[in-house]
């Protein structure tokens, strides 16, 4: 093959399409020069070595990549990293903090055997932690009683848990035990 047809390694993006971005990930600041097109999931996995969040569908439809950004759950495969400058990111690796004890949700998943293959488990756990915070802050879901007082904590019964976690898919079907684990932590 002549040199015209050989594939060249992809060139680095020009400086104008990169920005210095500081993220606080699992309590530690990280300042990186980030391509404007780079999503948070790739930055976490490839640049920071935090491989808990998984690349499932890469379209924000499965929840395997769920992490917490400033305490709210997000699909990291859809979130541009540069848009999160200054944000606090918590991955499944950072839920327990610096201690060796597991986060109560991680412990409940283990005790309830709320996983099978484990691929979706980090996203399920982060989403469940986010669900508890959202309900405590009074954020309603589709199934919340319309007569419930606005801004008051929402009681998490089985129906609320299932609805709020419906964006996280599990191909193995561990849903009943996942809901059990969340109920254990409430």
Secondary structure: elements and pairs:
Elements: E1 18-25, E2 28-35, H1 40-47, E3 66-69, E4 72-75, E5 88-90, H2 104-111, H3 121-136, H4 158-164, H5 175-185
Parallel strand pairs: 1-5
Antiparallel strand pairs: 1-2, 3-4, 3-5
Structure characteristics:
186 residues; alpha+beta; five-stranded mixed beta sheet; globular
Percentage of helical residues?
25-40%
Strand order of the largest sheet: 2-1-5-3-4
If helices are DSSP runs of H or I spanning 4 or more residues, what is the number of helices? 5
Give the end-to-end Cα distance, rounded to a whole number of Å. 64 Å
Q: Any idea what the shape is? A: globular
Elements, N to C (H/E): EEHEEEHHHH
Report Rg: 19 Å
> What share of the residues does DSSP label as strand, in percent?
5-15%
Overall pLDDT confidence:
91
Q: Which stretches of 5+ consecutive residues score pLDDT under 50?
A: none
Coarse structural class: alpha+beta
Query: How many beta-strand elements?
Result: 5
Query: Mind summarizing the main beta sheet?
Result: 5 strands, mixed
Descriptive notes:
This protein has 186 residues and is of the alpha+beta class. It is built from five helices and five strands; from the N terminus they run ββαβββαααα. Strands 2-1-5-3-4 form a five-stranded mixed β-sheet, covered by helices on one side. A hairpin with a 2-residue loop joins strand 3 and strand 4. It is globular and about 50 Å long. The model has no long low-confidence stretch (mean pLDDT 91).
